[in-house]
Amino acid sequence: MPLTRCVAVATLGAMTAEAWSVEMSHPSLPEWVFPPPGGFSAEDLDHIPDLPAHTELIDGSLVFVSPQASFHMRAVDLLVFGLRRTLPRDLRVRREMSVVTGRTQRPEPDLSVIRAAAEQGPEQTFYRAEDVVLVVEVISPESKDRDRKRKPSLYAEAGIPHFWIVENDSGRPVVHVYELDEVTGAYAITGIHHDRLKLSAPFDVDVDLTEIDRL
């Protein structure tokens, strides 16, 4: 028997998390796809059975990721290797670990720089926003609106001081660098870097972006 429900739909591919009337001719989807009243909480992600890897929580709804493209993988690798060369001893680089930014918010940046003291053990599944110094999003076609708009606002509201967006320019990474303006509570752009990423904040950074061709 058809079942019609008005729910905040878990994002699939390029869809955004918003209210839709979903009609299903049979219960083909698991119940956990549909958020409970008030949405899922950040802690729920650790207890939902058979949840796909790298599922995010945005505004209380589940967001599923698409298969990773070659550029995306190589851009993340390039930055991980580059940042670790100059990383201070009290910081760590982590890829694809979720960050709790609020009760119903648990996005997963492509790359994070965290304080070493935030490490709690090998079974840890997330970091708290207050322990994160930098988050990086590599733009994918199906998530570009989320990566450019909603997720930056979540990171800024949580007080994460540094945020980068990596765009694909004909196979080469272009890094847009932002810092949190404590007066406005929003990110302000400090530079756009094409061939070389050279910065002094949040620590000394010097990455040859053209090296992506060798990865």
TrEMBL record:
<dbReference type="InterPro" id="IPR012296">
    <property type="entry name" value="Nuclease_put_TT1808"/>
</dbReference>
<protein>
    <recommendedName>
        <fullName>Putative restriction endonuclease domain-containing protein</fullName>
    </recommendedName>
</protein>
<dbReference type="Pfam" id="PF05685">
    <property type="entry name" value="Uma2"/>
</dbReference>
<feature type="domain" description="Putative restriction endonuclease">
    <location>
        <begin position="44"/>
        <end position="203"/>
    </location>
</feature>
<dbReference type="InterPro" id="IPR011335">
    <property type="entry name" value="Restrct_endonuc-II-like"/>
</dbReference>
<dbReference type="InterPro" id="IPR008538">
    <property type="entry name" value="Uma2"/>
</dbReference>
